[in-house]
Specification:
This protein is mostly helical. It is 77% helix and 0% strand. It is globular.
Length: 434
């Protein structure tokens, strides 16, 4: 929530500067936008390279079939959520953006200090390199290489947490200063409200569909499952982090009667690879910003590669507030041709509802865990083994109750009577007669 407050403050400062500030102050904000944009472009390939490599390399800790099921279901859920969001949103977006909306490229001003900070590699090279080395690291299990990758990821995370994320509000403020100076701030804010509301509605629509499918497959009540996951949804809204909500998510999944070993394995893994809520938000915001910046929206076949790449690029990014949209900026520039103004508007749109996208990610993890529990043969075997001692104990207790009823002492059966009908039983030798 603090990040949202900082974002709103940055937008307010930028609008004030654009409306009432002198041109020199607006130019200063534009200079900061240029410098920060160069740093952001430099860091994105590093984020993609080390985060994805570390995330895929860490998958060696799971069992084969359960790992394949979890990763496959999470990726299919993410891609399907993005595709359905595009098909639903595309007809509505033109009505949400005014026809006379000024182009963002026209609103952007030029800086008086030219500067170029090229990244070490482009986004495509970073993505392929991360996939190759991450898969190899998972296969060979090299501890020195794993330690090196993890240290590089931690260094990149420090750059992200200590420089990039704190600077985003001022970066967004600089863009809004340019937009306000061009007279487009009112139209931009009106589009903001509509896009954010549409994204939240689509989050809940996707959760309803996902839990309906999971409930039909597993034989559970979808509404009961969704209601059980509400505590972790609210936790994620407050923390804005999938990793911080893992303990609550695991407790909610256990209440759905999912096997303990599936819960312990799938929930922490899905916290880094299942990002359907983030992809829904990025898809809606991308269509809106694309229409605002260029006046057109691309067709579905051209947009599918972007969704497929997002499903891989955002691996491990949800662990950091704002990490998903930061990691996606490289794809926005390379695949969709976004400029600095469009990227900054994307960041502001995404961060305004980051908590709700994260909550959708976390709540959907419960449906993935339930499906894995149903499809994994080891889950049924584990349940049978867990039930066997209980069945034996119940049988033993019933036998003891039967013997106690007939002899008065547990563990000792009554001797059969040898007396004839109508006669007193003969006392044993050494036993005084009654």
């Amino acid at each position: 929530m603090k990040q949202i407050a900082r974002l709103v403050t940055g937008m307010a400062v930028g609008v004030s500067v654009g409306l009432f500030g002198p041109p020199t102050l607006v130019a200063t904000f534009s200079l900061f936008k240029l410098l920060f944009g160069q740093l952001l472009g430099f860091s994105v390939p590093l984020i993609i390279l080390f985060y994805i490599m570390s995330g895929i390399g860490g998958l060696q800790r799971g069992s084969g079939r359960m790992l394949s099921l979890t990763v496959g279901l999470a990726y299919v859920s993410t891609v399907l959520a993005g595709c359905l969001t595009f098909l639903i949103t595309q007809p509505w977006i033109p009505d949400m953006v005014p026809h006379d909306f000024p182009s963002l490229s026209q609103a952007a001003s030029t800086s008086w200090l030219p500067l170029s900070l090229p990244p070490l590699m482009d986004v495509s090279t970073a993505l392929v390199t991360a996939l190759v080395f991450g898969t190899g690291l998972s296969a060979i299990g090299s501890q020195p290489l794993a330690s090196l990758v993890e240290d590089a990821r931690r260094i990149t995370e420090r750059l992200l947490l200590n420089v990039i994320v704190p600077g985003l509000p001022l970066y967004v403020g600089a863009v809004f200063a340019e937009i306000a100076a061009a007279g487009a701030v009112v139209s931009t804010l009106s589009v903001f409200v509509g896009v954010l509301g549409l994204a939240i509605v689509l989050h809940w629509g996707w959760l309803t569909l996902l839990f309906t499918l999971a409930g039909c497959w597993t034989g559970r009540n979808p509404l009961t499952m969704l209601r059980t996951m509400l505590p972790c949804y609210l936790t994620a809204v407050g923390t804005m982090s999938s990793a911080a909500a893992i303990p609550v998510t695991m407790a909610c999944v256990r209440k759905m009667k999912v096997s303990s070993h599936v819960t312990d394995f799938s929930v922490p893994l899905c916290a880094t690879i299942h990002i359907s809520g983030s992809v829904i938000t990025l898809t809606v915001c991308t269509l809106a910003v694309q229409l605002m910046s260029s006046g057109t929206v691309m067709n579905f076949p051209a947009f599918v590669p972007f969704i497929l790449a997002l499903g891989v690029t955002l691996v491990a990014a949800p662990g950091v507030p704002g990490g998903a949209v930061t990691a996606s900026t490289g794809l926005l520039i390379s695949l969709l041709g976004f400029d600095d103004a469009a990227v900054a508007l994307m960041i502001s749109l995404y961060l305004a509802q980051d908590s709700f996208g994260t909550a959708c990610n976390v709540a959907g993890d419960g449906a993935i865990a339930a499906l894995v529990d149903k499809m994994n043969p080891g889950s049924a075997d584990a349940r049978r083994k867990a039930q066997s001692p209980q069945i034996k104990a119940e049988t033993r207790c019933k036998g003891q109750d039967f013997r106690r009823e007939h002899t008065g002492r547990p563990g000792e059966a009554s001797a059969p009577s040898t007396a004839e009908p109508g006669r007193e039983p003969v006392a044993a030798a050494g036993t005084p007669p009654p």
